[in-house]
Amino acid sequence: MKYACQQNNEKGMTLLELLLALTLTSLLLLLSPFILNVFQNTLTYDVYSMKMEETIFFNQISQEMKGAIMFRNINQGFELRRADGDTVSFTLTNLGHIIYRKNYSGNVRMLSNVDTFTCKEDDSLIICHINHEGRELERHFMLQPYRFNEVPSPT
């Protein structure tokens, strides 16, 4: 009979459990801006990195166009003949990489994840189109042939 009268009153939480829950909630709220900032910076870095790769690629083409005396379309790319005798080509591979070759040797990967790469000549203007990771890009380059017989006039 003695045991029948006792009631087990375990309703609610203890003070220690409430403090622990409050501490964990406070930490989550305090750290959430930092965690979100890390995710946002990662996404921003990927976009920035992609734009930098594209800029470097187009700058390389621009540098190679200087002093070029001949432009020729080749399958999925183009070839330049330079005044110094070098031949430079940019071609799209089946794996979606644009590679740079100088004098028919070397395979320097300039861009990855490229769907299409075309360049066409319109007089002395070269128009290049690429589809890089879903973005359509177009750049225009001037082909200014190096003239061997031109001597700069003294001023």
TrEMBL record:
It is found in: Cell surface. PROSITE patterns: PROKAR_NTER_METHYL. GO terms for cellular component: cell surface. The keyword Iron-sulfur does not apply. GO terms for biological process: establishment of competence for transformation. The keyword Membrane applies. InterPro entries: ComGF, N_methyl_site. The chain crosses the membrane at residues 12-36. Keywords: Competence, Membrane, Transmembrane, Transmembrane helix. It comes from the Bacteria. Pfam families: ComGF, N_methyl. This is Competence protein ComG. It comes from Alkalihalobacillus trypoxylicola.
